[in-house]
Design goal:
alpha/beta; 5 strands
Length: about 100
């Protein structure tokens, strides 16, 4: 089992912290977990992404590529991602039937 989550928010909303907490919780339950962060170029109010991979097997690649859940923490974060590459790029890597919040 491999489960991938992406948390997207504006700086200061805690998207990276949410990803860290999720990865730590999975590890506490005996699962393997990795967490990576991506920050926008803006010093303040830039978009930040927290990616988490959770697996019951060793994780050989820590980046998300087949995302099961995407969490947008604000309309602003969603719109900012839309400006950067169009609607299609926002959900690139999100698999069919994924949970988008």
């Amino acid at each position: 089992m491999r489960y991938e989550v992406r948390v997207i928010g504006s700086a200061g909303q805690g998207s990276i912290l949410a990803a860290v907490v999720l990865a730590n919780a999975a590890a506490e339950e005996g699962l393997n977990a990795t967490q990576t962060a991506t920050y926008g170029a803006a010093m303040r109010s830039g978009v930040s992404l927290g990616d988490v991979v959770i697996s019951d097997e060793p994780i050989d690649f820590p980046k998300v590529f087949n995302i099961d859940t995407v969490i947008f923490q604000s309309q602003e974060a969603y719109e900012d991602m839309a400006k950067k590459g169009g609607q299609g790029d926002i959900l690139k890597g999100v698999k069919d039937g994924a949970l988008v919040i």
